[in-house]
Amino acid sequence: MEDVLGYQGKSVVVTGAASGMGQATAQILTELGASVTALDIKPATIPVARALQIDLRDKANIEEVAATIDGPIDGLFSCAGLPGPPFSEWDTILVNFVGARHLAEALVPKMSEGSAISVISSSAAIGWQGHIKVITELLETEGFDAAVAWLTANEKKWSWSGYAYSKYIIDAWVGWWYPELGRRGIRINCINPGPTETAMMPAFQDLMGKDTVDQAIGPVGRYSTAEEQAWPLVCLGSPRLSYVGGEVLWTDGGWNGAMTMGRHQAQWADTAADEMSKTH
Ligand SMILES: NC(=O)c1ccc[n+]([C@@H]2O[C@H](COP(=O)([O-])OP(=O)(O)OC[C@H]3O[C@@H](n4cnc5c(N)ncnc54)[C@H](O)[C@@H]3O)[C@@H](O)[C@H]2O)c1
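# nicotinamide-adenine-dinucleotide complex -> structure
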């Protein structure tokens, strides 16, 4: 069977394509025959059909860039992200969720029936279901400015970690938005990667300490590579997975399963859950 994943001749958009998982995603999609529009705040690092600079913190810039992308778009791969410190909590939540959502909403009118939005969240989202009330308050905001207004008025609810909060909300967002997108024939899903060897990793290790980061290693016993995250993301976005929507796929080497069954401990996950619980 040729073109197993059905990307030949398809038009796709990849954010965060200059580095790490986004770069690996753009590379794989290009090799699978897709025409890739690569978006990043940094210049492109691999040959793609088209590369555009975008700043996902900037509403007007997102709209300008989105307007230059012609439809029909068959796939949006939302990979751009910031780790939190040394970046500000504000920049982190803007890039990871508010800007990512604004871009996705701007592109949806150009997306074809049978297309998909595939987002990178994180295993840091573990336990998001315990905080649905505070997450839903932000999900219910309509548009970039309304999201910024909610974040400004409710800074205490999320600023303990813009990173963790942004990942909780992405896991919730896919289930929240799919009922609406599904009516247009568009799917949305996300992956929850475990620790991965990319340019982002030193920031996590500096902030939390390597031993703490390593508590997120699953039974697989090692960090993943960018390609090991890109492949499941590319599979989720494939038209072959047409019955998979609103789904969170844990790409964490078995960590979440082991945590759920009490066969692995990660102190930071309990600490994060406590911090989040204090806010609602
Ligand atoms: N590396 C890990 O251990 C890990 C684990 C779980 C989840 N993640 C998530 O994976 C995704 C990809 O991260 P990565 O590990 O490949 O890191 P990376 O730093 O290699 O890639 C992130 C990309 O996002 C881009 N970006 C940052 N700010 C931007 C902005 N304002 N506008 C547009 N683009 C911007 C960067 O330029 C970079 O190319 C992120 O969402 C991250 O949170 C990473």
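# post-check
The radius of gyration is 18 Å.
Residues 94 and 129 are 22 Å apart (CA to CA).
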